[in-house]
Design brief:
single chain; 166 residues; two-stranded antiparallel ribbon
Length: 166
């Protein structure tokens, strides 16, 4: 590739220069960043249609960016990828036992199993209002178990970390 080449035609491998006219496929899967199909002419675009089994497609005319535009776009993309890698590599720290907005506050018990247990054990019915306080109680038990495991330097909660019933 020469210094004036932006991309290469996906069919005939002819260089597409910076600022030159070229064609893109109208099908979205051909325009994804990873796929990146570029064509120097309509006949080159037309050659890929049977291979890709498009039902309804057309060649969309486009103009390649200038060298300066391309370099600025590449620098922005590389900076974004670098930031993503840095965020992925940085360990996500949580303070154990602290309340957080991202902790789910949904029901923690299987309501049908709870109702079946209460009915089998006592013959009583169970109100739907029981699940909220019971879930809150389970969260407090889990928070204590988390603190016990953290105190012992572990990242796994074991049965011995769960506090005994009072």
């Amino acid at each position: 590739m020469s210094d004036s080449t932006w991309k290469i035609c996906s069919t005939c491998k002819t260089p597409i220069e910076f600022g030159a006219d070229h064609y893109l496929c109208s099908v979205s899967t051909c325009n994804r960043a990873r796929m990146g199909l570029y064509f120097c002419s309509v006949p080159c675009w037309d050659a890929h249609v049977p291979m890709m089994r498009h039902r309804d497609a057309w060649a969309e005319p486009a103009r390649a960016p200038s060298r300066a535009e391309w370099e600025a776009e590449e620098a922005k993309r590389e900076a974004a990828e670098s930031e993503e890698r840095r965020e992925e590599a940085a360990p996500k720290r949580r303070i154990v036992g602290a309340e957080s907005d991202d902790v789910p506050k949904e029901v923690l018990v299987v309501v049908s199993k709870l109702k079946a247990y209460v009915r089998a054990r006592s013959g009583m019915n169970t109100s739907d209002g029981v699940t909220g306080p019971l879930s809150d109680h389970l969260r407090r038990i889990c928070d204590r178990a988390i603190q016990n495991a953290a105190r012992d330097g572990r990242k796994t909660i074991l049965d011995r970390d769960i506090p005994k019933p009072e």
